[in-house]
Amino acid sequence: ATANLTFFDKISQTYPIADNLGFVLTIAVVLFGAMLLITTLLSSYRYVLKPVLILLLIMGAVTSYFTDTYGTVYDTTMLQNALQTDQ
C-alpha cells in the first residue's frame, strides 16, 4: 500500500526509463534516503518512534489508496487542509 507505485508510474510516463534511468534511480534513492533519515532521527526518541511510525504508515496507506484508486496527487497544501480542523 505504501510502495509509491502510482508515483513511479507517473514518473515513468513523464520521463521514459530507457532515456532517464539515472534520474529515476536517483528519485528512488532519494525517497529511500528520506525515509531512512526520518526513521533514524526518530529512533533517538524512544517513546516517540512507535507512535510516529504508526501515524506515518497509516497516512501513507490512506494517501496511497486514494492515489491508486482515484488518481489524486497530494501536496503539502492538500495535507494541511485535510488535517486542519476549525472546531
Automatic annotation (TrEMBL):
Q: Per the record's keyword annotation, is Magnesium included, yes or no?
A: no
Q: List, for all copies, the residue spans of the domain called Phosphoethanolamine transferase N-terminal.
A: 34-86
Q: Transmembrane stretches, by residue range?
A: 20-42, 47-66
Superkingdom of this protein's organism: Bacteria
A single GO cellular-component term from the record reads: plasma membrane
In the UniProt record, does the keyword Transmembrane occur? yes
Q: What is its EC number?
A: 2.7.8.43
Q: Which Pfam family, any one of them, does this sequence belong to?
A: EptA_B_N
Its EC top class is transferase
- Give an example GO molecular function: phosphotransferase activity, phosphate group as acceptor
Key words of the record: Membrane, Transferase, Transmembrane, Transmembrane helix
This chain belongs to the protein called MCR-1 family phosphoethanolamine-lipid A transferase
Q: Which species is this record about? A: Escherichia coli
Lineage of the organism: Bacteria, Pseudomonadati, Pseudomonadota, Gammaproteobacteria, Enterobacterales
